[in-house]
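Students often ask why we bother predicting the structure of a whole assembly rather than each chain alone. The short answer is interfaces. A chain on its own may look different once its partners are present, and contacts between molecules only exist in the joint model. In this exercise we take three input lines together and write out one structure for the complete complex. Read the inputs first and try to guess which parts will touch.
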Amino acid sequence: MSFIHDDFLLQSETSRRLYQTYAASEPILDYHSHLPPADIASNRRFNNLFEPWLEGDHYKWRAMRANGVPESHVTGNADPRDKFLTWARTVPYTLRNPLYHWTHLELKRYFGIDELLNENSAPSIWDRANEQLRSSSELTTQGILRKFKVRAVCTTDDPCDDLAHHRAVNSSASAGFRMYPTFRPDAALAVGQPEVFASWVARLQKSSNIEIHSFSHFLDALKQRHGHFHSVGGRLSDHGLTRCFANPCNDTQAGLIFSKARDGKAASAAEEEQFASNLMLFFGRLDAEKNWTKQLHLGALRNVNTRATQALGPNTGYDNIGDWPQAEALSRYFDLLEQENALPKTIIYNNNPIDNFVFSTAIGSFQDGKTPGKIQFGSGWWFLDQKEGIEWQLNALSNNGLFGRFVGMLTDSRSFMSFPRHEYFRRVLCNLLGSEIDGGELPRDEELVGATIRNICFANAKEYLALDLN
Amino acid sequence: MSFIHDDFLLQSETSRRLYQTYAASEPILDYHSHLPPADIASNRRFNNLFEPWLEGDHYKWRAMRANGVPESHVTGNADPRDKFLTWARTVPYTLRNPLYHWTHLELKRYFGIDELLNENSAPSIWDRANEQLRSSSELTTQGILRKFKVRAVCTTDDPCDDLAHHRAVNSSASAGFRMYPTFRPDAALAVGQPEVFASWVARLQKSSNIEIHSFSHFLDALKQRHGHFHSVGGRLSDHGLTRCFANPCNDTQAGLIFSKARDGKAASAAEEEQFASNLMLFFGRLDAEKNWTKQLHLGALRNVNTRATQALGPNTGYDNIGDWPQAEALSRYFDLLEQENALPKTIIYNNNPIDNFVFSTAIGSFQDGKTPGKIQFGSGWWFLDQKEGIEWQLNALSNNGLFGRFVGMLTDSRSFMSFPRHEYFRRVLCNLLGSEIDGGELPRDEELVGATIRNICFANAKEYLALDLN
Amino acid sequence: MSFIHDDFLLQSETSRRLYQTYAASEPILDYHSHLPPADIASNRRFNNLFEPWLEGDHYKWRAMRANGVPESHVTGNADPRDKFLTWARTVPYTLRNPLYHWTHLELKRYFGIDELLNENSAPSIWDRANEQLRSSSELTTQGILRKFKVRAVCTTDDPCDDLAHHRAVNSSASAGFRMYPTFRPDAALAVGQPEVFASWVARLQKSSNIEIHSFSHFLDALKQRHGHFHSVGGRLSDHGLTRCFANPCNDTQAGLIFSKARDGKAASAAEEEQFASNLMLFFGRLDAEKNWTKQLHLGALRNVNTRATQALGPNTGYDNIGDWPQAEALSRYFDLLEQENALPKTIIYNNNPIDNFVFSTAIGSFQDGKTPGKIQFGSGWWFLDQKEGIEWQLNALSNNGLFGRFVGMLTDSRSFMSFPRHEYFRRVLCNLLGSEIDGGELPRDEELVGATIRNICFANAKEYLALDLN
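Now the answer. The structure tokens for the assembled complex follow.
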């Protein structure tokens, strides 16, 4: 029997029936990803398996480095085929790592390839996959989105982006899906790095067409961009933070910090926190006003290897899980917005499994009695998006919140090969629920459980996010 | 088959046999609860299912808010039946939350009702349950305690309480159980809120009949109340703390902080910690002198939603799990008492599962070689009193301590409907042990394992707490 | 059936086959232990079961104290047989504690004894075990090492040790195994305890034969000892730290702190951290130069019970799990060494399970693309070396790193009775993998999985540590 068979990860009859009946055919709403909008708009075709699979995947890079592969064959100048063969030699050492599952699930779903990838099978797999990539209409970027029944994909975008690619896709008659931007203004908080900050403010001025002479103009320009994202159909924002910032200064003080940073003087750590806190409240208000959903990605310790970061830049696979306290600042951030009746729908993602229970309770104190599941604990993120991490998030949410209102899975991926993550999640979900029915922890009421599955796969996200899917 | 059948949560023959043979018939010693003494003393009868089930249950309130139910139907003025129907509509969304288990276990054990609660079944369940509440002698507060074979229940009480209800119950020939108070002097630490503190000191003066002119009188009055609790049969104290306070000032400094707070000036955070540390040592000595058991409930982040707390008051379902470091202060508190040979029997409860292993080792360094299991790691608390939390606590305790000396379950509840929590715990316990016997992790020696189960259900708590059960 | 049967902990046919085929016969490389070199060099014979089992085992001491056993029968002056009988009475209360498994596994493997240890079986077990200890050539220290196919054992040694015992064993024709020292310079960081520090520097001066007039001489002497360890075949260092020290001062400042401590004045906490950070970088360079493997044991909160520590000394069973943040300092320590191209092979061990995921990602950012698995996350340590802790470490490592490159188990023990810990680990490992094959999470490719098992049992450690095993 092949490794990726129909019942992959479904360990009981009940689980199989739940998956096949309720989950398998649901469409996908991929509401958080890092896919490049240009590649989608241009309907990019890939020349070989290296491009969609290895070119930008820092999970694979880390595995290769840990396996003793030199950087030339990771991110360096080696031939794509050689890099692929080196990756194939690493694969057997990734047993029990999610890469082992993803690799074979992706080979099967995209190319119908059933063999285990290793040194011996690699050359033939390379040839067969490349042949399909070059010829199949299902394997362009748009083809892939349609093949996986993606109703909408949300990209992650700088507020200064003009969103031309999004507009192009959404005005196309043939795309068959929607592409929406996500407002991610991390650069607006960077008063600790004045050159970065000043140059970004210059971009913002240009894109907003608002002259930024003061902090007040700065806010105006941000609001203008937020409105622009809204006009293109965007209904989500996103922030990547170590911890919540919830220690705000007033606008006058924020203005002084703003001017200082713009003039090339770095804010102190305390000022940076105050400024960021002030802005995070501002962003909260913007989202609340327009009924957007705010996403907070908390807890990553990024770019820890100075030598590698200098050589390769950020986001090249040198990030860890952090272990900051999260509970007080997270609650305080919510509380400050709630006090001014400006707490938007929010999804919080954590990067350290020890925060699962804190997050699962933090959401429960800020539900508003209007929007079901208004504050959401998001699916297992980054170092937690494997079977165990998915199960932990589901269990923590269930134990302290409403599993039945969960908005479910997202790829959070930079790769067009990642859409089977939704299938993966659904199999884990149905396996869990089936085993609980069999163990008597859930009632043997498959209609009830099945409705919940359907909701988590698609309907909850559709209703909650209120994106236009037509 | 009904959801709550005889083998509910018992997933193997061995587990079933262990539960039926050793656990099911054991009496209950509910040594920590928040039941209202007056309701027990008066043998209150309930008018309808709303009163014992929804009126005071912040678990259900949180679930309803998360499901989009407006506050009018949670804690507000809506009709009790409408609130119940709204709760019933929420129940299907609580799948996988402990509320789903508790709800159906309680309907079965109190009313013999076997249906799943939802919008359709709700009206009939409401009528049938109410009929029984109004007519059955088993469903008054005292009837319930007898029905569940509760040998003693410990309430949680302010040191100023006169304990008349406890004395009334314990002098009653017909009660069939004992009710003991627990000394919970949290208000004595509140020097950071001078109005609260001063008014409480005034109450203390009155109840103790000791004029409080100084810190020394304050301690005298506290000691008098402790003695009063002892005279009524109380043998437990309890403290709700974010973290242990273990950074004491001396009595002179404590006296200054005391006077300042009493005069309406708030202590600083540092002073508050020093004062609380001083008092926690004092309370430790009181308990040690009288061979009481001290309980520490650590790690809750309370009343985080300012708007809701202002509208509804504290303890209305706006609390989270906190994530403070616990290890050093906890050890230091124990160590300071141990150094003066004044460490009482102590049970520590944690609110964040990440502290399970810290707690399971912290107890092991302060066992005294006299009282078996002198320092206890208490059962899964609050956000952790579901199947997974119960199992985690049992496993952490077992991995680093003596499971065989564990004093077991308590309801910690404000509701008379919560006594099946003991059954729930016992099923989880027996399911775990049965599966471990079947898996070869425990010897197939059911006498040995069964004796351990019996001890954990009742005998260990009886021996350890030394309450008068006659 | 006896408790410790052939399939102990192996819960499926697949698991049994994996264990018997791939794991059972692998030799042992016990690369971290606290065995006394003198006992090995002298081929010590034990007079009775108390000596190898209870004399130095603080796990058992903690269990006995928690069971109400007075110190006279733990570490005190009671008769060895009485102490053993007291331990036997405690054993039934250790159900679910790893001691229950270890106890019976050790009785079986060393003495062929199959009964459960308790009050009744104890006298006969005492007699039978003692008889064998006194007569069997397999039960001397060297006999034990050969019996368990230990190819090399690494002890943990003060830099001042002359390593005569190691040289004696390794020049013996008959030993049948190698014994290597591990360089553990914790005393070199103790500038906060000037008497301890000064007397240790005096020992260092003597052992190195280098006159230490300055910090620079101090470093020279440490380097001389490191070289001496190398000449005897040592290839590992070890450090026991609460947290990583990664906040270094320069050598001039370190010199001032050094002189101050040597003159009897305690360094401040800040100075101690700076000094320790400086030295930890120095030690990193020493290891990197000679291609050694550095071990970091992080997170223990030691000697928390002042009264007991004063009475019995350190390392007598009064230690807890700590809960310091680890992520930032750990990454920074690695980063500082990596920036000067002086990061050695390193194994990090954690004492708190909440750090598992942090550790599993921290290693991934410092792999160098040359040495496979260069930075390792070590096996479950101390309070985590039971079945659950072993599985958690394996899972965390697998989820975020390369399980296939893991260097596997070590005893970390002070007892010659602990070698079955390797068997225990292997059973847990094979049970996990077998169940994952059966559940479809791993491919049913027993050759692939079996090769991985073999590597983790022995070959990975052999290749990685580069100890001379001939």
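Check your guess against this: Chain A has a mean pLDDT of 97.
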